[in-house]
Design a protein that fits this description.
two-stranded antiparallel ribbon; 9% strand; 93 residues
Length: 93
């Protein structure tokens, strides 16, 4: 979510290299070890949920704005020492 400039090319390379073993009906597998030729077959809803939120945030930045618009989220970020900077808008917007 925070590094689309390096994450998206990495995901594309993983899919190109491993194909259907790493990317299936619900997206990327939860875990794999290419050296051992092992690919997880489980689908975990928690992982799919954050993937969808991350994709929406990449496209619109709305998830971050909605999160920071609520006092508990904003306070948590302050307590953790993070800034209130808004995410960059993507070039295609």
């Amino acid at each position: 979510m925070f590094t689309p400039d390096i994450s998206i090319p990495t995901l594309r390379a993983m899919r190109e290299h491993f194909g259907d073993r790493v990317y299936g009906r619900y997206g990327f597998v939860d875990a794999y070890n290419g050296a051992l030729n092992w690919f997880d077959t489980d689908v975990v809803g928690n992982d799919l949920g954050i993937t969808l939120l991350s994709a929406e945030n990449l496209l619109t930045g709305n998830v971050w704005r909605w999160f920071m618009a609520n006092e508990p989220g904003s306070r948590a970020m302050d307590l953790a020492g993070f800034s209130h900077a808004q995410p960059e808008k993507r070039p295609n917007q």
